[in-house]
Structures are given as structure tokens and as C-alpha cells.
Amino acid sequence: MITVMTVCGTRPDAIKMAPVILEMQRHPERVHLVNVVTGQHRQMLDQVLSVFGLEPDYDLNIMQDRQSLTQVALRALERLEPVMAETKPDIVMVQGDTATTFLASLSAFYHKCSVGHLEAGLRTYQKYDPFPEEMMRRLTSALTDLHFAPTGAARDNLLKEGFAPERIYLTGNTVIDALLSVADRPYTFEDGRLASFLAEPGRMILVTAHRRENWGDRMASVCKAVRALVDRYDDARAVFPVHLNPVVREVVFPALEGHDRILLIDPPDYLPFVNLMKSAHLILTDSGGVQEEAPALGKPVLVLRQTTERPEAVTAGCALLVGTDEKRILSEASRLMDDEAAYRAMSQSANPYGDGQAARRIREAVFEHFEVS
Ligand code: UD1
Ligand code: UDP
């Protein structure tokens, strides 16, 4: 019997950890599972926990309005300490590149617990892009015992950096496990405003933007491009789920509210959001997770960033890195609106990020490492 602690804090942490928690729960005779949430996100995390039916054993409830990175770090470390001391996990499982991820791996290290890192090895090698995620992920790698690389490129990065090959497992990304577990469920939009907006004819463009390096002018420029795009095409309709971060909302609402073919909504739960992606003609996003999901659903995605640590979809031809310049976004999006062949070429569905079996491989690797039979 081993004690496995999973730690999530934000929306993407929970979506990507959920398949691993569910997989571990299938082996109660071998795994004592301790599900910790830092609550770095409150509403957006709780939505995901309820979609997957997950109950935290410990909820550290650290979120504050407009929290700084330092405040997140202080509260998370302070509140993780007694939980680590009490539960003494054999391994602490973290995912990705959020503050919660790095802080939980640091706390695990202080308590001499092994660390298992989901979505290990993604890199831009640009210290401040994405900020702070690039360094959160690299610092987590330094503290990790078992690296779960989602793709060959991620594994190669870790090998190049000198991590031991026998500690690196090529697993695929659990985001695809999560997506495939919900994507085919029949779904009707419950939000009346959204349902009637989607019932109108036209091509729907789904937009999300929240990254810190895009706060301010770059986000304003994205908003201008969205407005110009909808104005250019009579049949274009944009749905923009606006991140709950007030720094994002202060830019997006004034720039885009009041347009009859642009719908600004609070971030939908995961199930409606997946169905929004399925209904979209085109996706504009700076999200990491959405970049991974869109190709699996056969939706062309324009990535609103200067760099990406997820080059696989760009290489596969399903995604294009367009940055945040208004003119560039408008011209690339217009090309896809006008040119059917270009659109078709980008909407070949591909799964460069996984095959839906990542959680099983991760669980098997943990069992193998601890010689659990
Ligand atoms: C965080 C992650 C980022 C990830 C993103 C996913 C860090 C440093 N950043 O960024 O890597 O891509 O989550 O969405 O870990 N808020 C709410 N309710 C919520 C969530 C957020 O009100 O459910 C508001 C709060 O005012 C909070 C603010 O958003 O202070 C910022 O949240 P925070 O977790 O610090 O950063 P994100 O920008 O969301
Ligand atoms: N997502 C969601 N509702 C939304 C926007 C995104 O459920 O309104 C999901 C999306 O399907 C993906 C994850 O949240 O799985 C991505 O999270 P986010 O964009 O916040 O973070 P990132 O992936 O950039 O770290």
C-alpha cells in the first residue's frame, strides 16, 4: 500500500489530474489516495471537481481577490506543511506549470517525499514567456523523481537537460483522457443566453485569453482584432468566456460589450466549454489546455502568444502561432474565413498530445517504481 497525494489548485490542474485520481481510485487495495486542493482558483476549480465527482480530502482555500504570486506562494507553502506532515505521502503528484504545481513539489521536497510530475518537459527556454509558468515547470522538474512526459519532444527536452532516462515516462497528456471521457456525451446548453446565441446561423469563433504576459495592451489588441473580425464577416459570431481574473475582465468587457454578435460570458464549466469548442468554427486562444484540445476536436486554433511550449499542433498543421498583434490576428483569421482549402487543411483532427491512456500509464509507472503488485 502506498500513499499517493494529488495536489491541484487551478482549473487546468484539476482537469488534467482528474483522470489520474479516477484511475488511482480504482485500486483502493494498493493506493491510499489523498486529494489536496490548494484552492488557488476557487470557482473555476470547484466547477471541475464537481464535473468529475471529486471530493478533496484537504482544501487549503488560499485564493484571494487579485492575489500576487508571492501571496499565493506564502499561503500555499504554509498550509501544505501540516498536511504533508500528517499524511506523509510516498509520492506527491503535481501537474503542469502553475504556482500550485511548483509550491507543492517544493513542499514535498522539504518533507522528503517523492514527486511525480504530469505534463513534464514542455519548454520555451524563455525565462519570462510564459511568465511565470516556464520557470514554475522547470523548477518543478528539478524537484521531480518521476517525470511523465506527454510527447516525444517533451521527453527529449528532459533528456537533453540530463534527467535520467529511467525516470522519464512517455505517457501522453491526461488532458486527452479527460476530453475523450466527456466529448461524446450528449449535451444541451443550459444557459439560455448562450443557447439562443448559438442557435442563430453563422460561424462561431470561440475566444479565450488570460495569460499574464498578455495582460494590458496585448489583450486590448486581441479584443480589437475580435471586434474587427466580427465586423468584417456578417455571419461571424464570437463567444468569449472571460476569465474570472479582474485584471482580464477590466480589459475585455469595456472593449467588447454591447456588440450584438459578440457574447461575453463567465467561464463555463468544463462540459459546456468542451461543447462550445465542438460548436466553434475557429478558436482563438492563449490557453495551454485549449491548444491541446482543439486539434483533437478538429478545430483550427490561432494561438495568441509569441512562443509556445506546445509546438506539436503547429507542426501537425492544426495550430498557428499568431501573437497578439491586431492586424496579424485579423489577417490570419480572415484567411481561414475566406479560404476553404486552408480551413480544411487546418481542421484535420489530430491527437499529437495523447491517446486517452495517459492516466493508466502514469498509474502503472508509479506502481512499477514503488514495486506495488
Ligand atoms: C493561473 C495560473 C496559470 C494558468 C491559469 C489557468 C499561476 C501563476 N498561474 O493564472 O498558469 O494558466 O491559472 O486559468 O499559477 N479568480 C477568481 N476565481 C477563480 C479563479 C481566479 O476570482 O476561480 C481571480 C482572483 O481574483 C485571483 C485572480 O483571478 O486573484 C488570479 O488568479 P491566479 O490563480 O493568481 O492566476 P491566473 O491568472 O488565474
Ligand atoms: N476551460 C473551461 N472553461 C473555460 C475555459 C477553459 O472549462 O471557460 C478548460 C479547457 O477546456 C481546458 C482548461 O480549462 O481544459 C484550460 O484552462 P486555462 O485556459 O484556464 O489554463 P491553461 O491551460 O492556459 O493553463
In what range is the share of β-strand residues? 15-25%
Order of helices and strands: EHEHEHEHEHEHEHHEHEHEHEHEHEHHH
Biggest pleated-sheet summary: 7 strands, parallel
CATH topology of the largest domain: Rossmann fold
Low-confidence regions: none
Q: Which CATH architecture of the largest domain would you pick?
A: 3-Layer(aba) Sandwich
Integer-rounded radius of gyration: 20 Å
- Give the name of the CATH superfamily of the largest domain: Glycogen Phosphorylase B
Arithmetic mean of pLDDT: 97
Class by SSE composition: alpha/beta
Task: Report the top-level CATH class of the largest domain.
Answer: Alpha Beta
Number of domains: 2
As laid out across the biggest beta sheet, the strand order is 3-2-1-4-5-6-7
Structural account:
By secondary structure, the chain is an alpha/beta fold. The protein has 2 domains: 2-172 and 357-369, 3-Layer(aba) Sandwich (Rossmann fold); 192-347, Glycogen Phosphorylase B (Rossmann fold), CATH 3.40.50. It contains 16 helices and 13 strands. Strands 3-2-1-4-5-6-7 form a 7-stranded parallel β-sheet, sandwiched between helices. Strands 10-9-8-11-12-13 form a 6-stranded parallel β-sheet, sandwiched between helices. The protein binds uridine-diphosphate-N-acetylglucosamine and uridine-5'-diphosphate.
Short description:
By secondary structure, this protein is an alpha/beta fold.
Write the layout of secondary structure elements.
Blueprint (H helix, E strand, L loop, with lengths): L1 E7 L2 H15 L5 E7 L5 H9 L6 E2 L9 H19 L3 E5 L3 H12 L3 E5 L14 H11 L2 E4 L2 H9 L7 E3 L3 H9 L9 H8 L3 E6 L8 H16 L3 E6 L4 H11 L5 E4 L4 H10 L2 E4 L2 H9 L4 E3 L8 H4 L3 E3 L4 H13 L1 H7 L11 H12 L4
Parallel strand pairs: 1-2, 1-4, 2-3, 4-5, 5-6, 6-7, 8-9, 8-11, 9-10, 11-12, 12-13
Helix pairs in contact: 1-2, 1-7, 1-16, 3-4, 4-5, 9-10, 9-14
Uridine-5'-diphosphate binds next to helix 1, helix 11 and helix 12.
